[in-house]
User: Which sequence fits this backbone?
């Protein structure tokens, strides 16, 4: 099968093509992160789960946190149930991690999302704005504040903020507060890196475009059902709303996880203060 037909056959699928993914999965990352303790927020499904799996493969001790228990419980990752959109939820996670493990070496602020209604600025209430800011900006800020003193003290650590290309390419009619919160997160991440990088802590931002998670797949099905069209037409509509994806499909969670896995590794020891966009070419500017 040639590359074009491979892309077409997998464009709207949540399944990973073995031939495509083998280049990633065949690498031996065992022990690259041995002895490291990592926390992945929103780590029970989608991109967060892919990141947690990638860090486990590299030998890290992985902690995951989310509001709900994992759909597929694992003995490999330590789970903490918590709502990080609330200050007390963040406090509980910080205390439990430090009490049980004594420190944290890698923090992946992956949790995020938008539940605000579509329709532009006029339909958005203060509560809509507050909810998006708490989830997408203030939760990472509070976690950073909880774990950074320990990282600075040991002179080593990595923080990754998972933002979004909507920080630069907002969809005003559907996710305005989310886009604004992610833009603030990118700016905050850069500023934080300037402060703590001289103290041994690297801070980076990863901004994905559209990722084909199981929830994205279900969204395509709902759009197709409501519009009377096909799933392929629904996916094409999403790509058109983004201005097109030159690569022709959404990202797989494992592809984003592989980027994160590299950035937290010793191979990326000189990288800090930078935003890495993984969007299949969606953003039309350099």
Assistant:
């Amino acid at each position: 099968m040639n590359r074009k037909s491979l892309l077409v056959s997998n464009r709207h699928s949540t399944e990973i093509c073995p031939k495509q993914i083998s280049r990633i999965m065949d690498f031996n990352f065992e022990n690259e992160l041995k002895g490291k303790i990592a926390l992945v927020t929103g780590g029970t499904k989608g991109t967060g789960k892919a990141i947690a799996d990638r860090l486990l493969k590299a030998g890290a001790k992985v902690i995951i946190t989310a509001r709900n228990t994992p759909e597929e419980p694992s003995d490999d990752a330590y789970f903490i149930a918590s709502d990080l959109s609330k200050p007390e939820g963040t406090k509980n996670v910080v205390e439990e991690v430090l009490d049980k493990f004594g420190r944290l070496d890698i923090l992946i602020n992956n949790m995020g999302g938008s539940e605000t209604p579509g329709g532009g600025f006029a339909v958005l209430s203060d509560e809509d704005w507050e909810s998006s800011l708490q989830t997408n900006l203030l939760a990472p800020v509070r976690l950073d504040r909880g774990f950074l003193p320990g990282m600075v003290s040991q002179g080593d650590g990595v923080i990754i903020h998972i933002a979004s290309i909507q920080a630069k390419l907002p969809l005003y009619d559907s996710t305005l507060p989310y886009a604004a919160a992610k833009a603030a997160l990118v700016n905050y991440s850069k500023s934080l890196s300037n402060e703590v990088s001289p103290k041994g802590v690297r801070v980076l931002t990863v901004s994905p475009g559209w990722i084909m998670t199981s929830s994205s797949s279900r969204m395509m099905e709902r759009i197709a059902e409501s519009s009377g069209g096909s799933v392929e037409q629904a996916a094409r509509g999403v790509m058109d709303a983004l201005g097109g994806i030159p690569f022709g499909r959404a990202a797989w969670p494992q592809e984003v996880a592989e980027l994160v896995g590299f950035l937290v590794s010793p191979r990326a020891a000189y990288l800090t203060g930078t935003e890495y966009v993984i969007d299949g070419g969606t953003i039309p500017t350099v």
